[in-house]
């Protein structure tokens, strides 16, 4: 590694596994001191583990302050925490409807079953995903910028969105939240530029992470078939894009969305 983040303080949410863990490891390898924020605190090589519920603004504020106290400074914030489903969001009838519809089509029948999720989604299911994916990104950015403003320092924010924000593929709450993250990224990039704070996003395509375990195998197979490069992304490939955006190599890049989806969809 180049050590291009040597001496910098970073915080990463959703850091316990998958893309988040890969980001923590990559930033640490490049010289940053990293606080790994997650609901389930686990030791991560070269990182300070802090328990944090990103849907709770007080929890986020406390975690950010703890990281700053430990490192003496903060330079990078990566909002990675995200979920694809929540209790009461209609996922079960959606998957059941999809299976029934696919079976009818495979049998040469005119499908009468529908893969509906919207009509089965309860308020709590909608809010559960939005609270983590969107509110969490807002809470982290707000507290991070408050710290930078106090320290009269610049920095970099990287938000993790999704290719679904452009393609529309996925569940209503997930797609809406990831599209909103891009909107938030662009607004903050304009507002925070005078402070020397850059704000960008990474939009991964289907990635081989634990979140895929809740998706039917046939759906994953169809995802892989739709990717021109012929496979799912690896978490470390997404982490590489984050590291670049967080570094001085991207010093004139703000308000951008780096797409890492193997060519499956073009922004």
Please write out the topology:
Layout: E1 9-13, H1 18-29, E2 33-38, E3 47-51, H2 57-71, E4 76-79, H3 91-106, H4 123-151, E5 155-160, H5 164-167, H6 172-192, E6 197-204, H7 217-226, H8 235-246, E7 257-260
Parallel strand pairs: 1-2, 1-4, 2-3, 4-5, 5-6, 6-7
Structure description:
With 267 residues, this protein is α/β, with parallel strands linked by helices. It has a single domain (9-86, 126-259), classed as 3-Layer(aba) Sandwich (Rossmann fold), CATH 3.40.50. It has helices at residues 18-29, 57-71, 91-106, 123-151, 164-167, 172-192, 217-226, 235-246, and strands spanning 9-13, 33-38, 47-51, 76-79, 155-160, 197-204, 257-260. Strands 3-2-1-4-5-6-7 form a 7-stranded parallel beta sheet, sandwiched between helices. Helix 1 links the parallel strand 1 and strand 2. Helix 1 packs across helix 8 and helix 2 (57-71) packs parallel to helix 4 (123-151). The two termini are 30 Å apart. 44% of the residues are buried. The model has no long low-confidence stretch (mean pLDDT 94).
Brief overview, please?
The chain has 267 residues and is an alpha/beta fold.
Task: Write a concise keyword list for the protein shown above.
267 residues
């Amino acid at each position: 590694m180049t050590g291009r983040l040597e001496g910098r303080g970073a915080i990463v949410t959703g850091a316990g596994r998958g893309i988040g863990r890969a980001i923590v490891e990559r930033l640490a390898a490049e010289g940053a001191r990293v606080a790994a924020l997650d609901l389930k605190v686990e030791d991560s090589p070269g990182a300070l583990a802090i328990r944090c519920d990103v849907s709770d603004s007080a929890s986020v504020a406390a975690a950010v302050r703890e990281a700053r106290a430990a490192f003496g400074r903060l330079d990078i914030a990566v909002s990675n925490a995200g979920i694809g489903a929540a209790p009461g969001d209609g996922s079960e009838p959606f998957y059941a409807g999809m299976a029934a519809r696919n079976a009818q089509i495979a049998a040469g029948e005119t499908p009468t079953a529908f893969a509906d999720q919207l009509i089965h989604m309860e308020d709590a299911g909608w809010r559960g995903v939005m609270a983590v994916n969107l509110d969490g990104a807002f809470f982290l950015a707000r507290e991070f910028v408050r710290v930078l403003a106090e320290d009269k320092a610049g920095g970099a924010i990287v938000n993790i969105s999704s290719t679904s924000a452009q393609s529309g593929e996925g569940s209503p709450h997930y797609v809406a939240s990831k599209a909103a993250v891009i909107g938030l990224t662009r607004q903050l990039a304009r507002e925070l530029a005078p402070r020397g704070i850059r704000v960008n996003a990474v939009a991964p395509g289907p990635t081989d992470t634990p979140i895929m375990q809740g998706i039917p195998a046939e759906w994953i197979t169809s995802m892989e078939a739709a990717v021109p490069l012929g496979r799912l992304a690896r978490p470390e490939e997404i982490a590489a894009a984050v590291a670049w955006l967080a570094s001085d190599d991207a010093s004139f890049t703000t308000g951008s969305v780096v797409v890492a989806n193997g060519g499956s969809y073009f922004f």
